[in-house]
Amino acid sequence: MLLPLAGLLVGVVLGLILKVNVSFEFTRYSAVAIVAALDSVFGAVRAELDGVYDNRIFITGFVTNAIVAVLLAFIGDRLGVDLYLVALITFGPRIFQNVALIRRHFL
What share of the chain is helix, strand, coil (3-state, %, to 5)? Predict the structure, then answer.
């Protein structure tokens, strides 16, 4: 559970310190990658609380989710279709579901 949370914390701190500016052309790509990464992090925290966390599954899921989400956004841009919405619609509810389960665990 510490690796996903530590990675999230380091990423947020680095983003604030470095003041990274993302050009307008890449906002969709970065948005879906961030949402996919958050889905993986909250899924890992939930898995740890359930006692089934596996570091290998977390890392491969983190990378795979981000790559698939960015590829959907890229293909959608080339086709002129908003395929990035597919990633957001898929990962968004999963994030809220995982956060709700984490909250219930502590209550």
Answer: 85, 0, 15
